[in-house]
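Appendix C reproduces, verbatim, an entry submitted by the partner laboratory led by Prof. M.T., so that reviewers can inspect both the input and the predicted structure.
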Amino acid sequence: MFINPYNKYITVIRVFRASEEFAWQRGMVLVVSCEWHLGVLVLDTNKAENPEKAEAVDSNVSNGSSNGETRKGIDNIIQKVIDGSDNDEQTIKKLIKEKQEELSGLVSEEGAAYIVARELGVNLLKATKRQLKVKNLLPGLRSVDLLARVVRVFEPRDWSKGERSGKVASLILGDETGTVRLSLWNDEVDIIGRDKINEGDSVKISGAFVKMDNRGQPDLRLGRGKLVPVEEGKVTLPRPEDIQTVARTTRKKIKDLKDGDYGETMACLVQIFSRSRPFYEICPKCGGRVSEDNGKFECKDHGMVEPDYSMVVSGVIDDGTANIRAVFFRETAEKVLGKTVKDLRDELGKGKSQDEIFAKLENIGKDFIFQGRVKRNDLSGNIELIANDLRKVDVKEETNKLIEELKNN
């Protein structure tokens, strides 16, 4: 088959091996639509014609079909093109011959007939809608349909790049095959509040696409697609606690962390620093940062508001090989402190100092698994961990991992 990496194709293939999710058997001949993505030829399995109903197959790969059967298949294609267009039989045959000559004889007459049909707007492929599973999502896929459970909802945050700015929020979606991040940008963020999408809800994604995030992992995007809640009971999905989070992060020792790394490290929380201003104002509706002018606060999307508060704290973590400064925002800050924003504001309002409060934190001296991105601080020149999550160490889980490592070595 002649391949131009910028075009879509219709081609004829024979199945030699297929995973269980496809109702294909070895030896079947399929007519499929395909497209070039990131150096890989991707077959659009939603548009694979049922081989039992295929009216023509490439004579070079047909399974013992006679010339008469092949001719009948071509004639059937031509008749469908005539019925679906304003061209007569002589014109269609001429176009098929010209298409074969254009492609230097690299496609059979049947293949050329399918291409001509497509160019004339006659779709001979019987599309069957099929939901993807999380494990099937790969960077470069488009028109993605997915049913999934909302495993986690992250608070929106502001972003800016040059003269552009906006907000972004993330959902972790999952099914029985794993989890994937859905990133919502700008106006898409409002879907969470408008449709009251919460952790544990079932949702349907349609018409989405998959990009590669800066960690090299699939990142689901809506674009012109849709995200809608699904009424419980109408779909069968595992419970959030039964969904296995796909471990996509690499565990490293602190001494091995480098600028730009994304991963996790198991370390002890040694200290939390006092900050001159640990709290910052956010919009109570969207969670974005607000600007202050003479004691009044304005959200660029919701106008003048009475702000809520979020917080940022930093500290030191140490795993015995080295230590590193770690920074915690929003709900991750609350987790590391073991206190909500309201709790901390109330304590400070009663006259307690940050040093006094932080010295008595229950989490000081405990081991956690910290996950996030390593970046170099522009002022100090040292690397630091911008943590986006932390979790308690599961001794049983870590023991099993160690046993597996010893077995493999």
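Residues 8-119 form one domain. Additional entries are available on request from the coordinating office.
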